[in-house]
Amino acid sequence: MCGIVGYIGKRQAAPILMAGLHRLEYRGYDSAGIAVGNKGTLKVAKCKGRVRELDELKPQRFKGMMGIAHTRWATNGEPSDRNAHPHCDSAGRFAVVHNGIIENAAALKEQLTARGVTFSSDTDTEVFAHLIAMMDDGSPLENVVSAALRLVVGTYGLAVIDAARPDVLVVARNGSPIVLGIGDKEMLFGSDSAAFVRHATSMVHLDDGEIAVVRADGYETRKLDGTSTVKTPSALVWKDEAYEKGAFDHYMRKEIGDQPEAVRRTLGGRLDARFQTTHLGGIELAARDLLDVRRIKLLGCGAAYIAGATASHLIEQLARLPTQAEPASEFRYRNPVIEMDTLYIAVSQSGETFDTLAAVQEIKRRGGRIIGIVNVVGSTIARECGHGIYLHAGPEIAVVSTKTFTCSVVALALLAIHLGRLRDLSNANGARLIKGLEALPDHIAAILKREDEIAQLAECFQKAEHAFYIGRAAGYAIAMEGALKLKEVSYLHAEAYPASELKHGPLALVTSETPTVIVLPRDDLYRKNVSTIEEIKARGGPVIAITHPGEAHVAFDRSFEVPMLEPELDPLLLNIPLQLLAYHVALQRGCDIDQPRNLAKSVTVE
Ligand code: G6P
Known about the structure:
The chain is an alpha/beta fold and 606 residues long. The protein has three domains: 3-243, Glutamine Phosphoribosylpyrophosphate, subunit 1, domain 1; 245-449, Glucose-6-phosphate isomerase like protein, domain 1 (Rossmann fold), CATH 3.40.50; 451-594, Glucose-6-phosphate isomerase like protein, domain 1 (Rossmann fold, 3-Layer(aba) Sandwich). It contains 18 helices and 27 strands. It has an eight-stranded antiparallel β-sheet with strand order 3-2-4-1-10-9-11-15, covered by helices on one side. Strand 2 and strand 3 (41-48) form a beta hairpin. It is globular and about 80 Å long. It binds 6-O-phosphono-alpha-D-glucopyranose (G6P).
């Protein structure tokens, strides 16, 4: 979603800000803009469309050593030039960029209009620019911004510059992330560290209710009431190169290819062959605490929810604890019962998804015990949970989640083994699963080498407008993930169904132009799945099986075999061809793979 970047220092701000915007493109946006301050004036350029269009539109001479820039994902007001950020006051002195939603914008707008202010956009953000201008009494900018923020109800990550105060920038956070980047006699900030990673050596995450005064030589943080806060900078975890696409055409394809290495990093230092268990220091729960756990609840959104659904089978099998996954977005709205002997687990790549964060906060408020499975170190959900397992998957730039889905399931498999070994999981089974996890990266790499075969499967979708993805138990969760990937990147309607449920309704929709992808491991349910395939074939529906080697008991139209690993870990391998399948269908259909329409990477609003 919306991205923010800011700079103040001794260099020209515009090129640094534009490079920052390019880095933030992955979050999803529909318009972009930039403002720089120079010799008492502000220069602003903004437009609907891509950052490269802003680059072309922006005058060559766009000088100034401080500035802010933004990529917008429309919430209030359609995507358009006039609604793009930054927004300025009537005199063009203050410029504001903002992520989040000002809930009382309509009331504030009415008051400002009554005092003669004319608005030039439909956004809530513009209200804030006029508010600051009206409240400016010559006191330091941070005081004016704090006073204005006290009148605002809603969420924000925002940044303000004033042409008349060229040595300072003010940023504030309430519900939408802001990270400061500390460079060499220069300061930067962004909605995530990707925006400034090239120039900063360390970073500081603002907390909700904090405001920061940023100068070229440093920063101060405080609360809205003026009390100072103390922050400890941390090192940047991912270097600039980690954000490069390399030789790949798309980040999605690069990240699918990253998986063997990413999984190795998730496993790194966490396997204990001596006691056939796993080390998970970050969860900070002693064996005794974990033995008190009677139930597990996994919460996440999108692919993170499905990672939880996939792992729920694993946890239940290995630890024999009732485990359930639920979309975090639903959980918090149904007045859930929070149980003290349940371990709640929030799963999130970005660590910023608003719905997941809100669920975490609600669980904490009611005294529940929660840990996070998060990729971005220091992100809001990671900090809010306090304990958990970092994925260490490296940055994921494509809007759709691939490597972090796999790594989330791997992290949860580590937890499942840990919980299982505290209970009834035998030494032999612990050892077997550890060996299986160690072998996982090489098996993934072997599947990736057969990409051409999967590209051929994609041809089955040439005439299709609808597809079914089916499976049983963990295979159904993988079907959900496969269908989600296809929907997100190829815009084909794909519906996931438990294979057992097909005959209870959706079979009515099966035709010769509706392919069904079946996740078909050779497990106890293989024969049941074969019966389902026969039902589909009897209705003329093409069947594509993602399966294991062995004699086929039914004729598929197409199939792809993945190696058998361990039954509990097989879902991870069965998913890899589905990622590549979605990628190749999207490629053949000419879709914008890394930034699918209407989607955003880090959904920081409700
Ligand atoms: C958005 C993205 C999905 C992602 C979900 C959860 O909806 O489009 O691809 O799976 O958010 O993101 P998270 O960062 O919490 O894993």
